[in-house]
Amino acid sequence: MRIVAASATLVIGLVLGGCAPAAKEIIGGDISTAKASARGDAAAAQEMLALHNAKRRLHCAPDLTWSSDLAAAAQAWADRCEFSHAPRAENPNQGENLARGAGSLGAAAHLFGGWYDEVRQYNFGKPGYQKGTGHFTQIVWRGTREVGCAVASCSGKQFWVCRYAPMGNIVNAGYFEKNVSKATCGP
Questions:
Q1: Is the pTM of this model over 0.70?
Q2: pLDDT by residue (tens digit) across 57-95?
Q3: Are 4 and 73 in contact (CB under 8 A)?
Q4: Exposure check for the chain: N or C terminus, fewer CB within 10 A?
């Protein structure tokens, strides 16, 4: 796979939410062996993991570990070049963030920044699922322990898929209060 630069466009998908029991933890793989990106090296995996963990630390959430299994599932979905969430049967008990962009707007840091910037819309005074904030809440969800991300080149755009386990955005009573907190642990 190779990434093709084109005129800049950006589209961001929504995290899958819903009423689901907490997922079991998946045993992660070694980041150095994960096929995380179209570049085919561990650098993209390391970048995505570092971006996630830097923001999670601000929100007092534990660091995520890289999961080769989640990355492989994300790659399989990204390779389909369908900008829509995978059916629950294809990613049971996993959260999912999607984004795509062309040129510099398709870079991991830019797309991740779009996901995290939803923090500006989240009302911490009324915790719970809120439209337009699902990417952010999945990123900082305390109960999530692993992430695996992948990218595919689709019609000149980079299509990123990140999968999370256990999934976040569980709308059962009290879950958002326990799992999404303000950025109070930062430097």
A1: yes
A2: 999 999 999 999 999 999 999 999 999 999 999 888 999
A3: no
A4: C
